TrEMBL record:
Keywords: Cell membrane, Lipoprotein, Membrane, Transmembrane, Transmembrane helix. The keyword Ribosomal protein does not apply. InterPro entries: ABC3_permease_C (IPR003838), Lipoprotein-release_system (IPR051447), MacB_PCD (IPR025857). It comes from Lutibacter agarilyticus. This is Lipoprotein-releasing system permease protein. Belongs to the ABC-4 integral membrane protein family. LolC/E subfamily. GO terms for cellular component: plasma membrane protein complex. The chain crosses the membrane at residues 25-50, 277-301, 331-353, 373-399. GO terms for biological process: lipoprotein localization to outer membrane. It is a multi-pass membrane protein. Residues 28-219 form the MacB-like periplasmic core domain.
Amino acid sequence: MNYELFIAKRIIAAKQYKSSISSPIIKIAIIAISLGIVIMMIAIATGIGLQQKIREKIAGFNGHIQITNFDNNYSEITLESVSTNQEFYPEFKEIDNIDNVQIFATKAGIIRTASDFEGIILKGVSNDYNWRFFEEYMVAGKLPDFSQDVSTDVLISQEISNRLQINLGDQFNVLFVKDDPSKAPWLRVFTAVGIYNTGFQDFDENFVIADIRNIQKMNRWAVDEVGGFEVLISNFDEIEVKSIEVYEQTASTLNTQNVIEKYPAIFEWIGLFDNNIYLIIAIMILVAGINMITALLVLILERTQMVGILKALGASNVSIRKVFLYNAGYLIIRGLFWGNLIGLSILCIQKYTGIITLDPETYYVTNVPVYINIGYIILLNIGTLLLCLLMLIIPSIIISKINPVKSIKFE
């Protein structure tokens, strides 16, 4: 029989335990652990959630990997065409975890209305385009259909709609500069059939999604000439590996660039979230551990006579230390229980209501995104429990300093 656990349970169940001098200190320790786990859960869930949401939005506008001609510059505009007669199109047969390969082309233009004008990037796509990203962020209208004849239907952002007063179903003019600046620009008339809002203002204020055949016609490209290819992968964590594999499967005249290489500043910024998460976890566990050390020392000092009696009966210092560590473990688990309950409640409320908002100009999202994964929650709880118990091993050595003769005569 594990008599150390038996004694620990008796101590926990005793009425004196709940009304003793140590009771307020124990409650403070439990509250500290609960608050610590709540803050750690929120830090991890929102940090990872923000990283994933920003990655998702950048990939939604650019794909995970872009394949273009080496002659193109590194702006958002495709200058040189690429033939669609490639071995990897419409799919990479020798690379797994590739969701889609889709053609695209971009061209700079100016939307002109009766009272205003705005520079935009017209992104041309075809019927192989994966609309899953824009489906999530549609606020009005429908997605354009480019499977039939050349279409003038376009998808615009709510940002452009508000700034230029272009409503659903409105037609508007777009000017495109020709290769020869001395010639009059092209004038194209498009119809807004859908409005999206991703909250990523850098993209929302620029991109208009249209039929790629409009750009092919203006650039005098053949039907098999496009600006490039976008590759969508299943797992973003594999983007570096997949970039190399894609590069190896493309012709020597083509260049591949993933979104991390294309937008290094943004990815360096969101990479700093990991450091913040690690720092918060370290501080919270340290605070919880210190509170538990205080509670343990008070528990030991409060039961000095019991320690003396156990020693007189032949109990070893290790066994007595186990009694108090079991006791401390119970307190830690109580704190973890309430912390998980409160933390998950807060995260679920935010996840399904989006009650806490953010400035999209700074964070690229309109509300705090939440990532909930049972795996990291279990690891966080196990890690907190083990680290707190490890921190309690050294202060529990005070038990070996208690003299049974003096402690029994204490009262």
